[in-house]
Amino acid sequence: RPADILFQCSDNTWQAYNDWGSCSLYKCLSDAHSSRSTVASFDRPIFGPYGDGSADYLDHELALISLAEERGLDITYITDIDLDQRPELVLRHRAVLSLGHDEYYTTKMYDALEAARDHGVNLAFFGANAVYRRIRLEPGADGTPARRMVNYRSIKDPATKSDPKDATVNWRDAPL
Asked: Cα–Cα distance between 157 and 150 in angstroms, integer?
């Protein structure tokens, strides 16, 4: 619904650090042949630091959300996937808040926030490394959109040759 404030939940980052099944986009716990995965699936439980599926929500997002709700602020919520799939939603708000370690962005997410800013929507990033890594979202095994997050972090991404603007590198790095 339209509201003054839109809170953007950093679920891409949660999945990037999620090592359920032994690998995350940062490390592999049991595979001696791979230092990390290049694809993270949203179709798995979150194995976070608390072992309760909360990922970094408790550390990075809950306190400010609780304050906003306690104060009765006009706030609605969106996930990173929602922003990617329905970028027009940000234009219904006066401000967008990114609270956590909101690191992983698709081009559609980046463009949506930039367009919102250009239309007078305020953007507030309260965490570190916001919009740091460019990712691609791909369908899951059953064809459901945006269920797999791809991040090679280098020009070794096969997309670099076929479509350089689709490369999953840091936003500030070539070929972006």
From this structure: 9
Strand ranges (DSSP E) for 20-129?
Answer: 39-41, 75-79, 93-98, 104-105, 122-125
Q: Residue 86 and residue 41: Cα distance in Å, rounded? A: 20
Quote the CA–CA distance of 5 and 8 in Å, as a whole number. Answer: 10
Give CA–CA dist 176/136, Å, rounded: 13
Parallel, antiparallel, or unpaired for β 148-150 and 136-138? antiparallel
Task: Return d(Cα 2, Cα 8) in angstroms, integer.
Answer: 14
Q: What is the average per-residue pLDDT within 14-28?
A: 86
Strands of 136-138's sheet in order across: 39-41, 148-150, 136-138
- Whether omega before 145 lies within 30 degrees of 0, making that bond cis, reads no
Residue 34: strand, helix, or coil: coil
**According to the model, what pLDDT value does residue 48 have?**
62
Residue 109 clears pLDDT 90, i.e. is over it: yes
